[in-house]
DNA sequence: GATGAATGAGCGTTCATTCAT
DNA sequence: AATGAATGAACGCTCATTCAT
């Protein structure tokens, strides 16, 4: 077994188990059995379970960024670029449920155990949205007061969609593709609205 | 100990533990210890752990509905009604994180174990949004092709916000109240947009 | 609920549960639920689980005796009487599996907790066999050195049959009725044999 | 601790506990404590409690067969061979109460959880009896219509003896060795009788 | 680089039983 | 005569992890 092949297999099998059996179904024991190695071997490549998760998360963030960014420069129109970003975000989430869940859904109570490094990596993706908003705002097609806030808002909308779909929480009778289309349409459209001037806050 | 006080205490403590230690932190043993009773006692009031969760979920759905619906009829303007609903949904989620998580975040893989009855109750709340959309569409202030889809879209946006805030996934430097205000503003605004006629679907 | 009706119902339900769910399936909790009373109520009529079992055993021994003895005096021929006893013993066992198991099969390791009183009652039944042997020996049709030993031997043979059938341990392809007939035939026949004179013992 | 010594110790201790404390006394915890290891360790060698039992049963069946079969070919006379088999069966049962109970007495309601493989192994032993009967019938010393039925009948008689002795259900004043001798004598003798021709069945 | 052996802590759950009312 | 409330002990089992080799 060459160098780090096993490490790769562990990560891949972990993702597979994660999506097939859920978080609680991913135990070190089962993982070891699935790759055909002893449980101890996993600890040669990962300090502990958290570490393994950490690596998966970073990988996921990287993949998400690449998925979002690929050929993005070729889309000059800010609106079309934002729309493409929305579509890509959702398709990434739905096609990589294990990465998505581990990045944004699972065990938030323990997320504090993970270094803040994530956020830096995650922000790279968020900046793609922010950049489109920035460009669009300059051109007058979008109206943002603070593009970093608005980018978070867009992320919020898209995350709502992906997480509800992955968790099967939407009404089964809902037509999924028209639902997703409307999510994207309204998300993009919402950026075209001039925000009111008022400054009242909602919550302390 | 009178009547069913203990049952109430169990439910309350379960909610508390849930938000403090997460799902895996809510074990029957810890719960028992927290209320100062033996683990066995819990089984006098709940058939098993699933049953306890089931009760909490139903309670949460009921409370959410009441929170959304209180005095809603007194708001004649559909837009103001929709805005109120959005504000209330978010404030409920942030003020009742344990109910929110158990209803909409936790262990989705196991949610199939719970009867479909939930969804009926949950849909009552969704219908409040749908009704506002319906009225607004009739008045021409909103533009919806299918209010039940659009209601789901709104829910999607709001759920994205609540779940990201509860999971502390947003940039710490983000001003929360302006973020939340923008979420609500754009959510409401997005309904004012006429949807394009095109029928292309996003995902197979 | 008059006097001791409940006591009777408890005993009957216990027998029912015993045969339907086995020994471990008979818990005080389930028993209480089955009769529609609280678990505590059982303790009004029986000191504890052992006591309940004790009563069932004594009942079973009594019923077995009656089943064996009914109209037995009307059978003058010792051989026919012995044959009748064998048939009755087996039919009682197969038709009252719960009594049979509780009397002769279940938890022998704990039988020491039960008073020796059983044996007195049980011996009454054994004596019916012994009497037939005694009469048959006097008439020369049976050959017994010590009828109490031979009666135990007969019981041994019959018990083997009942316990194997109740436990479903016999080959499923075995025709049960010809098997049982042969058991009885050979049991009765074995008593017709003159025992050898030798006195060597088998086991220390 | 070399190789699989612990596995062996677990099995041996299980047998010991089984006979000393009965089936319910054999818990994984007690077993672990008895061998001075943690309960978890048992699961390194056995998948679960059923598996452990399964292994013990197979071991017992194998040992019983060897005990019955050893040097059996050296006994040409079918009658002497049958007698030897009877003596050996009983001595095995009395000298290996734990194997005997786990094979033929304990928790019959759960025996369905164990694969049918047992029965194949158990039948090997039964066939030794059948063979002796077959040979004896050919020589005219035994009279059997169907040797497989008659072999089951013999097993029945012997099992009755072993199980009653192990359960201490026989009258304490009974002389055990003359009782056992008579069991064997009459069991063998019973095979010498020509069965009647009648075909009436006992039980529907 | 990889493993076998082992564990402490914890899980959800069931049990027979007691006690005050 | 009957109950509701409560419990300590035990059950089979799984977990992430360690350590010596």
Structure description:
- The structure is a homotetramer of 204-residue chains.
- The first copy, chain A, has 204 residues and is mainly α.
- Chain A folds into two domains: 1-46, Arc Repressor Mutant, subunit A (Orthogonal Bundle), CATH 1.10.10.60; 57-190, Tetracycline Repressor, domain 2 (Orthogonal Bundle).
- The first copy, chain A, is 68% helix and 0% strand.
- Chain A starts with a helix and ends in a 14-residue tail after the last helix.
- The model of chain A has no long low-confidence stretch (mean pLDDT 90).
- Chains in contact: A-B, C-D.
- At the A-B interface, helix 5, helix 8 and helix 9 of A face helix 5, helix 8 and helix 9 of B.
- The first copy, chain A, binds a DNA duplex (21 and 21 nucleotides) through residues 1, 6, 27-29, 37-41, 43-44, 48-49.
Short description:
4 copies of one chain form a homotetramer. The first copy, chain A, is an all-alpha fold and 204 residues long.
């Amino acid at each position: 077994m060459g160098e780090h092949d096993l490490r790769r297999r562990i990560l891949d099998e972990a993702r597979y188990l994660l999506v097939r059996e859920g978080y609680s179904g991913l135990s070190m024991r089962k993982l070891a059995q699935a790759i055909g190695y002893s449980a101890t071997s996993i600890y040669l490549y990962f300090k502990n379970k958290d570490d393994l998760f950490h690596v998966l998360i970073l990988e996921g963030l990287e993949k998400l960024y690449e998925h979002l960014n690929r050929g993005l420069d070729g889309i000059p129109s800010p609106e079309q670029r934002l729309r493409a970003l929305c579509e890509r975000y959702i398709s990434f989430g739905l096609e990589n449920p294990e990465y998505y869940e581990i990045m944004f859904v699972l065990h938030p109570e323990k997320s504090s155990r993970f270094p803040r490094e994530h956020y830096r990596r995650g922000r790279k993706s968020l900046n793609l949205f922010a950049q489109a908003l920035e460009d669009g705002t300059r051109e007058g097609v979008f109206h943002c007061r603070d593009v970093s806030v608005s980018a978070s808002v867009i992320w919020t909308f898209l995350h709502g969609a992906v997480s509800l779909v992955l968790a099967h929480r939407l009404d089964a009778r809902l037509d999924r593709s028209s639902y997703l289309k409307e999510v994207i349409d309204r998300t993009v459209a919402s950026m075209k609205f001039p925000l009111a001037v008022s400054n009242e806050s909602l919550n302390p």
